[in-house]
TrEMBL record:
InterPro entries according to UniProt: AAA+_ATPase, ABC_transporter-like_ATP-bd, ABC_transporter-like_CS, ABC_transpr_MalK-like, ABC_transpr_MalK/UgpC-like, Mo/tungstate-bd_C_term_dom, NA-bd_OB-fold, OB_MalK-like
Domain of life of the native organism: Bacteria
Protein name: ABC transporter ATP-binding protein
Domain ABC transporter: 4-234
Keyword ATP-binding: yes
Keyword tags: ATP-binding, Nucleotide-binding, Transport
PROSITE patterns linked to this entry: ABC_TRANSPORTER_1, ABC_TRANSPORTER_2
Length: 363
Protein backbone atom coordinates (compact mmCIF):
# COMPACT_ATOMS: atom_id res chain seq x y z
CA UNK A 1 0.00 0.00 0.00
CA UNK A 2 1.20 3.50 -0.70
CA UNK A 3 0.27 7.13 -1.04
CA UNK A 4 0.97 8.95 -4.30
CA UNK A 5 1.88 12.55 -4.91
CA UNK A 6 2.16 14.68 -8.02
CA UNK A 7 4.22 17.77 -7.24
CA UNK A 8 4.09 20.55 -9.84
CA UNK A 9 4.05 17.94 -12.59
CA UNK A 10 4.03 19.14 -16.18
CA UNK A 11 4.14 17.00 -19.31
CA UNK A 12 4.89 18.59 -22.62
CA UNK A 13 4.78 16.83 -26.01
CA UNK A 14 6.89 19.14 -28.21
CA UNK A 15 5.19 22.49 -27.61
CA UNK A 16 1.86 20.99 -26.45
CA UNK A 17 1.26 20.97 -22.70
CA UNK A 18 -0.81 17.84 -21.95
CA UNK A 19 -0.55 18.12 -18.14
CA UNK A 20 -0.01 21.56 -16.65
CA UNK A 21 1.50 21.96 -13.17
CA UNK A 22 -0.46 19.13 -11.53
CA UNK A 23 -0.41 19.11 -7.73
CA UNK A 24 -2.26 16.21 -6.18
CA UNK A 25 -1.88 14.11 -3.02
CA UNK A 26 -3.56 10.71 -3.07
CA UNK A 27 -3.82 8.99 0.30
CA UNK A 28 -2.80 5.42 1.00
CA UNK A 29 -5.81 3.19 0.26
CA UNK A 30 -7.81 5.92 -1.44
CA UNK A 31 -9.90 5.40 -4.61
CA UNK A 32 -9.09 8.46 -6.70
CA UNK A 33 -10.76 8.99 -10.07
CA UNK A 34 -9.43 11.27 -12.81
CA UNK A 35 -12.33 12.48 -14.92
CA UNK A 36 -12.69 14.95 -17.76
CA UNK A 37 -13.47 15.22 -21.46
CA UNK A 38 -11.37 13.62 -24.17
CA UNK A 39 -7.88 15.11 -24.41
CA UNK A 40 -7.89 16.74 -20.94
CA UNK A 41 -4.72 14.92 -19.84
CA UNK A 42 -6.10 12.21 -17.55
CA UNK A 43 -4.49 9.25 -19.34
CA UNK A 44 -1.21 11.13 -19.59
CA UNK A 45 -1.28 11.73 -15.82
CA UNK A 46 -1.75 8.00 -15.23
CA UNK A 47 0.98 7.08 -17.72
CA UNK A 48 3.37 9.49 -16.02
CA UNK A 49 2.70 7.75 -12.72
CA UNK A 50 3.14 4.33 -14.35
CA UNK A 51 6.44 5.38 -15.91
CA UNK A 52 5.14 4.97 -19.47
CA UNK A 53 5.84 8.66 -20.12
CA UNK A 54 8.63 10.79 -18.71
CA UNK A 55 7.87 13.87 -16.60
CA UNK A 56 8.91 17.19 -18.22
CA UNK A 57 8.91 19.10 -14.91
CA UNK A 58 8.10 18.34 -11.28
CA UNK A 59 8.19 15.11 -9.35
CA UNK A 60 6.04 12.08 -8.68
CA UNK A 61 6.35 10.08 -5.46
CA UNK A 62 4.92 6.70 -4.55
CA UNK A 63 5.09 6.43 -0.78
CA UNK A 64 8.14 8.48 0.11
CA UNK A 65 10.06 7.34 -2.98
CA UNK A 66 10.61 9.72 -5.90
CA UNK A 67 9.86 7.57 -8.95
CA UNK A 68 10.71 9.93 -11.84
CA UNK A 69 13.83 7.94 -12.72
CA UNK A 70 12.44 4.45 -11.95
CA UNK A 71 11.40 2.10 -14.75
CA UNK A 72 7.73 0.96 -14.73
CA UNK A 73 8.57 -2.48 -13.35
CA UNK A 74 10.32 -0.99 -10.33
CA UNK A 75 7.39 1.23 -9.27
CA UNK A 76 5.32 -1.50 -7.59
CA UNK A 77 2.20 -0.64 -9.56
CA UNK A 78 -0.13 -2.66 -11.80
CA UNK A 79 -2.13 -1.16 -14.63
CA UNK A 80 -5.35 -2.30 -16.29
CA UNK A 81 -5.65 -0.84 -19.78
CA UNK A 82 -8.79 0.00 -21.74
CA UNK A 83 -7.78 -2.62 -24.34
CA UNK A 84 -6.96 -5.15 -21.54
CA UNK A 85 -3.75 -5.99 -23.49
CA UNK A 86 -4.04 -9.75 -22.84
CA UNK A 87 -1.55 -12.02 -24.59
CA UNK A 88 -3.73 -13.77 -27.22
CA UNK A 89 -1.63 -16.95 -27.51
CA UNK A 90 -1.59 -17.60 -23.74
CA UNK A 91 -4.28 -19.18 -21.57
CA UNK A 92 -5.98 -17.09 -18.89
CA UNK A 93 -3.82 -18.87 -16.29
CA UNK A 94 -0.61 -18.01 -18.16
CA UNK A 95 -1.74 -14.42 -18.71
CA UNK A 96 -2.25 -14.04 -14.98
CA UNK A 97 0.94 -15.95 -14.08
CA UNK A 98 3.20 -14.12 -16.54
CA UNK A 99 4.41 -11.22 -14.40
CA UNK A 100 4.92 -13.47 -11.36
CA UNK A 101 7.00 -15.81 -13.51
CA UNK A 102 9.13 -12.84 -14.60
CA UNK A 103 9.61 -11.93 -10.93
CA UNK A 104 10.99 -15.44 -10.38
CA UNK A 105 8.23 -16.58 -8.01
CA UNK A 106 7.98 -20.31 -7.33
CA UNK A 107 5.45 -22.46 -9.23
CA UNK A 108 3.54 -23.11 -6.00
CA UNK A 109 3.28 -19.44 -5.08
CA UNK A 110 2.20 -18.54 -8.64
CA UNK A 111 -0.50 -21.22 -8.55
CA UNK A 112 -1.75 -20.08 -5.18
CA UNK A 113 -1.92 -16.42 -6.21
CA UNK A 114 -3.56 -17.09 -9.61
CA UNK A 115 -6.19 -19.38 -8.08
CA UNK A 116 -6.79 -16.90 -5.25
CA UNK A 117 -7.37 -14.02 -7.67
CA UNK A 118 -9.47 -16.20 -10.00
CA UNK A 119 -11.71 -17.17 -7.10
CA UNK A 120 -12.05 -13.57 -5.97
CA UNK A 121 -13.15 -12.59 -9.49
CA UNK A 122 -15.25 -15.68 -10.21
CA UNK A 123 -13.17 -16.79 -13.20
CA UNK A 124 -11.79 -20.13 -11.90
CA UNK A 125 -13.54 -22.04 -14.69
CA UNK A 126 -11.95 -19.91 -17.39
CA UNK A 127 -8.30 -20.44 -16.48
CA UNK A 128 -7.60 -22.87 -19.35
CA UNK A 129 -9.23 -20.70 -22.02
CA UNK A 130 -7.56 -18.32 -24.49
CA UNK A 131 -8.62 -14.63 -24.53
CA UNK A 132 -10.49 -15.05 -27.83
CA UNK A 133 -12.76 -17.62 -26.15
CA UNK A 134 -13.93 -15.07 -23.56
CA UNK A 135 -16.72 -12.47 -23.56
CA UNK A 136 -15.85 -8.78 -23.08
CA UNK A 137 -16.84 -8.91 -19.41
CA UNK A 138 -14.72 -12.02 -18.80
CA UNK A 139 -11.71 -10.44 -20.51
CA UNK A 140 -12.11 -7.39 -18.31
CA UNK A 141 -11.99 -9.62 -15.22
CA UNK A 142 -8.92 -11.43 -16.46
CA UNK A 143 -7.20 -8.07 -17.00
CA UNK A 144 -8.07 -7.11 -13.41
CA UNK A 145 -6.95 -10.57 -12.23
CA UNK A 146 -3.61 -10.13 -13.93
CA UNK A 147 -3.16 -6.91 -11.98
CA UNK A 148 -4.22 -8.23 -8.57
CA UNK A 149 -1.99 -11.32 -8.56
CA UNK A 150 0.96 -8.96 -8.39
CA UNK A 151 -0.24 -7.44 -5.11
CA UNK A 152 1.00 -3.99 -6.11
CA UNK A 153 0.95 -0.99 -3.78
CA UNK A 154 -1.04 1.02 -6.35
CA UNK A 155 -3.57 -0.06 -9.00
CA UNK A 156 -3.94 2.07 -12.08
CA UNK A 157 -6.97 1.62 -14.31
CA UNK A 158 -7.50 3.42 -17.60
CA UNK A 159 -11.14 3.28 -18.74
CA UNK A 160 -11.34 -0.47 -17.97
CA UNK A 161 -15.11 -0.59 -18.52
CA UNK A 162 -15.47 1.35 -21.75
CA UNK A 163 -15.66 -1.79 -23.92
CA UNK A 164 -18.58 -3.23 -21.97
CA UNK A 165 -22.28 -2.70 -22.66
CA UNK A 166 -24.30 -0.53 -20.25
CA UNK A 167 -25.58 -3.38 -18.06
CA UNK A 168 -22.23 -5.09 -17.70
CA UNK A 169 -20.64 -1.75 -16.90
CA UNK A 170 -22.91 -1.28 -13.90
CA UNK A 171 -22.08 -4.78 -12.69
CA UNK A 172 -18.33 -4.35 -13.24
CA UNK A 173 -18.41 -0.96 -11.51
CA UNK A 174 -19.76 -2.62 -8.36
CA UNK A 175 -17.18 -5.40 -8.61
CA UNK A 176 -14.28 -2.95 -8.84
CA UNK A 177 -15.61 -0.96 -5.87
CA UNK A 178 -15.91 -4.19 -3.87
CA UNK A 179 -12.42 -5.22 -4.91
CA UNK A 180 -11.11 -1.91 -3.65
CA UNK A 181 -12.78 -2.34 -0.27
CA UNK A 182 -11.49 -5.94 -0.01
CA UNK A 183 -7.91 -5.11 -1.02
CA UNK A 184 -7.74 -1.68 0.69
CA UNK A 185 -5.02 -0.72 -1.79
CA UNK A 186 -4.70 2.67 -3.48
CA UNK A 187 -6.73 2.72 -6.73
CA UNK A 188 -6.26 5.42 -9.36
CA UNK A 189 -8.85 5.23 -12.08
CA UNK A 190 -9.33 7.18 -15.30
CA UNK A 191 -12.70 7.69 -16.97
CA UNK A 192 -14.52 10.25 -19.07
CA UNK A 193 -17.81 9.06 -17.54
CA UNK A 194 -18.97 11.25 -14.67
CA UNK A 195 -21.41 8.59 -13.40
CA UNK A 196 -18.55 6.10 -13.08
CA UNK A 197 -16.47 8.75 -11.31
CA UNK A 198 -19.27 9.72 -8.91
CA UNK A 199 -20.20 6.15 -7.98
CA UNK A 200 -16.68 4.78 -7.51
CA UNK A 201 -14.37 7.52 -6.32
CA UNK A 202 -13.62 8.47 -2.71
CA UNK A 203 -12.40 11.65 -4.37
CA UNK A 204 -12.57 12.83 -7.94
CA UNK A 205 -9.99 14.94 -9.76
CA UNK A 206 -11.72 16.88 -12.55
CA UNK A 207 -9.40 17.93 -15.38
CA UNK A 208 -9.77 20.22 -18.37
CA UNK A 209 -7.10 21.23 -20.91
CA UNK A 210 -4.34 19.64 -18.82
CA UNK A 211 -5.32 21.64 -15.72
CA UNK A 212 -6.77 20.17 -12.53
CA UNK A 213 -10.02 22.07 -11.94
CA UNK A 214 -11.07 20.63 -8.58
CA UNK A 215 -10.39 17.58 -6.48
CA UNK A 216 -13.04 16.68 -3.96
CA UNK A 217 -15.55 14.10 -2.75
CA UNK A 218 -18.46 13.31 -5.10
CA UNK A 219 -20.91 15.17 -2.83
CA UNK A 220 -18.75 18.29 -2.63
CA UNK A 221 -18.23 18.36 -6.40
CA UNK A 222 -21.98 18.21 -6.87
CA UNK A 223 -22.88 20.69 -4.12
CA UNK A 224 -19.94 23.08 -4.27
CA UNK A 225 -18.45 23.04 -7.77
CA UNK A 226 -15.44 25.37 -7.95
CA UNK A 227 -16.26 26.75 -11.38
CA UNK A 228 -18.60 26.66 -14.35
CA UNK A 229 -16.78 23.77 -15.98
CA UNK A 230 -17.07 21.44 -12.97
CA UNK A 231 -20.68 22.53 -12.41
CA UNK A 232 -21.55 21.65 -16.00
CA UNK A 233 -19.56 18.43 -16.07
CA UNK A 234 -20.93 16.79 -12.91
CA UNK A 235 -24.64 15.95 -13.13
CA UNK A 236 -26.83 14.62 -15.91
CA UNK A 237 -28.57 16.31 -17.64
CA UNK A 238 -26.08 19.11 -17.06
CA UNK A 239 -26.73 22.15 -14.87
CA UNK A 240 -28.64 24.99 -16.58
CA UNK A 241 -26.87 28.33 -16.77
CA UNK A 242 -28.75 31.62 -16.89
CA UNK A 243 -27.17 35.00 -17.62
CA UNK A 244 -28.90 37.07 -14.92
CA UNK A 245 -28.81 40.86 -14.68
CA UNK A 246 -28.35 42.72 -11.43
CA UNK A 247 -31.08 45.18 -10.55
CA UNK A 248 -32.12 47.14 -7.49
CA UNK A 249 -35.73 47.12 -6.27
CA UNK A 250 -36.64 49.34 -3.32
CA UNK A 251 -33.01 49.36 -2.24
CA UNK A 252 -32.83 45.57 -2.37
CA UNK A 253 -30.57 43.90 -4.89
CA UNK A 254 -32.20 41.36 -7.19
CA UNK A 255 -31.03 39.14 -10.00
CA UNK A 256 -33.20 39.36 -13.05
CA UNK A 257 -33.74 36.15 -15.02
CA UNK A 258 -35.62 37.06 -18.19
CA UNK A 259 -38.09 39.22 -16.24
CA UNK A 260 -38.24 37.05 -13.11
CA UNK A 261 -36.76 38.82 -10.07
CA UNK A 262 -34.70 36.44 -7.96
CA UNK A 263 -33.09 37.14 -4.61
CA UNK A 264 -29.43 38.11 -4.65
CA UNK A 265 -27.56 36.61 -1.72
CA UNK A 266 -24.97 38.50 0.29
CA UNK A 267 -22.11 36.56 -1.30
CA UNK A 268 -23.14 37.86 -4.72
CA UNK A 269 -23.52 41.43 -3.43
CA UNK A 270 -20.00 41.18 -1.95
CA UNK A 271 -18.67 40.27 -5.38
CA UNK A 272 -19.00 43.93 -6.41
CA UNK A 273 -20.89 44.72 -9.59
CA UNK A 274 -19.41 41.89 -11.62
CA UNK A 275 -21.64 39.99 -14.06
CA UNK A 276 -23.28 36.87 -12.61
CA UNK A 277 -24.23 33.51 -14.11
CA UNK A 278 -26.89 31.60 -12.21
CA UNK A 279 -26.80 27.79 -12.20
CA UNK A 280 -29.89 25.66 -11.57
CA UNK A 281 -29.75 21.89 -11.77
CA UNK A 282 -32.53 20.17 -13.77
CA UNK A 283 -33.50 18.23 -10.62
CA UNK A 284 -34.17 21.48 -8.75
CA UNK A 285 -36.84 22.62 -11.21
CA UNK A 286 -40.35 21.36 -10.44
CA UNK A 287 -43.79 21.25 -11.95
CA UNK A 288 -46.21 23.16 -9.64
CA UNK A 289 -48.37 20.04 -9.31
CA UNK A 290 -45.67 18.05 -7.47
CA UNK A 291 -43.60 20.19 -5.17
CA UNK A 292 -41.34 18.74 -2.50
CA UNK A 293 -41.51 20.08 1.03
CA UNK A 294 -38.91 22.48 2.35
CA UNK A 295 -38.03 24.34 -0.79
CA UNK A 296 -37.89 28.09 -1.24
CA UNK A 297 -40.24 28.26 -4.24
CA UNK A 298 -39.92 30.82 -7.02
CA UNK A 299 -41.86 30.82 -10.27
CA UNK A 300 -40.15 30.35 -13.62
CA UNK A 301 -42.70 30.63 -16.45
CA UNK A 302 -41.72 28.82 -19.65
CA UNK A 303 -42.91 27.11 -22.82
CA UNK A 304 -42.26 23.41 -23.42
CA UNK A 305 -40.11 22.51 -26.44
CA UNK A 306 -39.82 18.75 -25.94
CA UNK A 307 -40.76 16.09 -23.39
CA UNK A 308 -38.86 12.81 -23.01
CA UNK A 309 -40.54 10.07 -20.97
CA UNK A 310 -37.88 8.10 -19.07
CA UNK A 311 -40.26 6.01 -16.95
CA UNK A 312 -39.06 7.29 -13.58
CA UNK A 313 -39.03 10.94 -14.70
CA UNK A 314 -39.76 13.32 -17.54
CA UNK A 315 -36.85 15.16 -19.10
CA UNK A 316 -38.44 18.42 -20.17
CA UNK A 317 -36.77 20.91 -22.51
CA UNK A 318 -38.28 24.37 -22.15
CA UNK A 319 -37.59 28.04 -22.75
CA UNK A 320 -38.39 31.27 -20.97
CA UNK A 321 -40.37 34.06 -22.68
CA UNK A 322 -37.05 35.73 -23.54
CA UNK A 323 -35.89 32.53 -25.24
CA UNK A 324 -33.40 31.12 -22.71
CA UNK A 325 -33.48 27.34 -22.96
CA UNK A 326 -33.25 25.01 -19.99
CA UNK A 327 -33.90 21.41 -19.05
CA UNK A 328 -35.84 20.04 -16.08
CA UNK A 329 -36.33 16.59 -14.53
CA UNK A 330 -40.00 16.41 -13.69
CA UNK A 331 -42.26 13.98 -11.85
CA UNK A 332 -43.50 11.45 -14.47
CA UNK A 333 -47.14 11.77 -13.32
CA UNK A 334 -47.32 15.26 -14.80
CA UNK A 335 -49.24 15.52 -18.04
CA UNK A 336 -47.48 18.04 -20.26
CA UNK A 337 -46.68 18.29 -23.93
CA UNK A 338 -44.87 20.42 -26.46
CA UNK A 339 -45.96 24.10 -26.65
CA UNK A 340 -47.67 24.02 -23.22
CA UNK A 341 -47.07 27.03 -20.99
CA UNK A 342 -45.98 26.02 -17.50
CA UNK A 343 -45.14 28.03 -14.42
CA UNK A 344 -42.23 25.91 -13.25
CA UNK A 345 -41.04 26.26 -9.68
CA UNK A 346 -37.37 26.60 -8.84
CA UNK A 347 -35.79 26.11 -5.43
CA UNK A 348 -33.87 29.22 -4.43
CA UNK A 349 -32.03 27.18 -1.76
CA UNK A 350 -30.37 25.26 -4.56
CA UNK A 351 -29.07 28.09 -6.74
CA UNK A 352 -25.41 28.20 -7.78
CA UNK A 353 -23.77 31.55 -8.53
CA UNK A 354 -20.72 32.13 -10.72
CA UNK A 355 -18.62 35.11 -11.74
CA UNK A 356 -19.47 35.18 -15.44
CA UNK A 357 -16.10 36.41 -16.61
CA UNK A 358 -13.79 34.50 -14.27
CA UNK A 359 -16.09 31.43 -14.46
CA UNK A 360 -15.45 30.72 -10.77
CA UNK A 361 -18.07 29.98 -8.14
CA UNK A 362 -19.14 32.89 -5.94
CA UNK A 363 -19.06 31.56 -2.39
P1 LIG B 1 -9.05 10.39 -23.79
O1 LIG B 1 -10.22 10.25 -22.88
O2 LIG B 1 -9.44 10.75 -25.20
O3 LIG B 1 -8.07 9.28 -23.71
P2 LIG B 1 -7.32 12.00 -22.09
O4 LIG B 1 -7.92 13.00 -21.19
O5 LIG B 1 -6.91 10.72 -21.47
O6 LIG B 1 -8.28 11.74 -23.31
P3 LIG B 1 -4.61 12.26 -22.91
O7 LIG B 1 -4.53 10.94 -23.61
O8 LIG B 1 -3.95 12.39 -21.60
O9 LIG B 1 -6.12 12.71 -22.78
O10 LIG B 1 -4.05 13.37 -23.90
C1 LIG B 1 -3.93 14.73 -23.54
C2 LIG B 1 -3.43 15.51 -24.73
O11 LIG B 1 -2.08 15.15 -25.01
C3 LIG B 1 -4.23 15.22 -26.00
O12 LIG B 1 -4.41 16.43 -26.70
C4 LIG B 1 -3.33 14.30 -26.77
O13 LIG B 1 -3.51 14.43 -28.17
C5 LIG B 1 -1.95 14.70 -26.33
N1 LIG B 1 -1.01 13.57 -26.38
C6 LIG B 1 -1.11 12.43 -25.66
N2 LIG B 1 -0.08 11.60 -25.92
C7 LIG B 1 0.70 12.23 -26.84
C8 LIG B 1 1.91 11.92 -27.53
N3 LIG B 1 2.56 10.75 -27.31
N4 LIG B 1 2.40 12.83 -28.40
C9 LIG B 1 1.77 14.01 -28.62
N5 LIG B 1 0.62 14.39 -28.00
C10 LIG B 1 0.09 13.51 -27.12
Amino acid sequence: MASVSFEQVTKQFDDYVAVNNLNLEIADGEFLVFVGPSGCGKTTSLRLLAGLETVSQGQICIGDRRVNELSPKDRDIAMVFQSYALYPHMSVYDNMAFSLDLQGKSKDEIKQRVYGAAEQLGIEKLLHRKPKELSGGQRQRVAVGRAIVRKPSVFLMDEPLSNLDAMLRVQARKEISKLHSDLTTTFIYVTHDQVEAMTMGDRIAVMKDGILQQVDSPANLYNQPANLFVAGFIGSPAMNFFQVERSSQAGEEKLNLDGVALPSPETVAKNGDRAVTLGIRPENIYHPQYLPLEIEPLELPATINLVEMMGNELIVYAQTAAGTEFVARIDPRVNIKQKDSVKFVVDAHRFYYFDREMETAIT
